[in-house]
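Task card 7
Instruction: Convert sequence to structure tokens.
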Amino acid sequence: MKLFQRTRELEDQLDRFFDAVSESGLVLRAGVDDYLAGRADEFARRIGEMRERESRADDLRHEIENRLYAESLIPEQRGDVLVLLERLDGVLGQAKSVLKTLEVQQPEIPQPFADGLPPLVAASAEAIERIVRASRAFFSELEAVQNDVHKVRYFEKEADAIGTRLRRDLFAGGLELAHKLQLSHIVDAIEEISDLAEDAADALVIFAIKRSV
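Output:
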């Protein structure tokens, strides 16, 4: 059963918010690939795309919040919805933070470390996509929430495993300690995306249970 009835404009705002969060995962993957390939102009364009998604999501989140209060919609679930949107906004913000770190620090990323980054980014990007799918289901197909929540948790574990391997190999190598720490912090930042997606998924499960009783 759909959470909102006869509120098409609000549904459209939610869809556009979810689109912005979902697209952040795609921009993240493309941005990291551009950075690793040395495509400076393309990487700069990805930074702009990510900023645009974050700005759009922020505006939509505030519009949705105002509409929920102004029109006294779903008072029983309003708090849960606002928490969910805030957490998804945080996931998008962390994706932007990864690209911003690369932009500001301009780290040298040697092989074979560079080969290990795209799979880590892919796992976190998949976690973004799955939490967005689970969130969409919360509003329209409640019984489908758990399936994508399960996949969020899978990709969080995958990101954790890849990150652990990257750090182990990194610190076993011959780079200067400061360089190792810099690259390790980038791994941490990418992993944090999937951690935040899992936090949102954990909250979403509780919200879905509350809706179903």
